[in-house]
Design goal:
It holds the Pfam family tRNA_bind. By secondary structure, the protein is mainly β. It has 2 helices and 9 strands; from the N terminus they run αβββαββββββ. Strand 2 and strand 3 form a beta hairpin.
């Protein structure tokens, strides 16, 4: 494992946002949703997320998630992803979202 400096870590913009909308993404190679998230002062952004095994669209709306907002945009099929949704693979390789246990202001940075 490569070590990084504190300055390297500080450059990663891991921010909290609230999910506003979730829609199916049938064009994706693996089952995924398109999600629209409010990152407070950093704006509303879209991303795709392969989280269909553990989450329904309905339960995601209103939930706060953690995203990396300073990666460049990435084309996924016919869709432009504007941030990276963070999570962990379970024993089957299905993604479980990284999350917070208490509500914080949208846009808050992981420290």
């Amino acid at each position: 494992m490569e070590t990084i400096s504190w300055n390297d870590f500080e450059r990663v913009e891991l921010r909290v946002g609230a999910v506003l909308e979730v829609v199916d993404f049938p064009e994706a190679r693996k089952p995924a949703y398109k999600i629209r998230v409010d990152f407070g002062e950093f704006g509303i952004r879209w991303s795709s997320a392969q989280i269909t095994k553990h989450y329904t669209k309905e339960e995601l709306v209103g939930r706060q998630i953690i995203g990396v907002i300073n990666f460049p945009k990435k084309q996924i099929a016919n869709f432009m992803s504007e941030f990276l949704v963070t999570g962990f693979a379970d024993e089957n390789g299905d993604i479980v979202l990284s999350s917070i246990d208490k509500k914080v202001p949208n846009g808050s940075k992981l420290v």
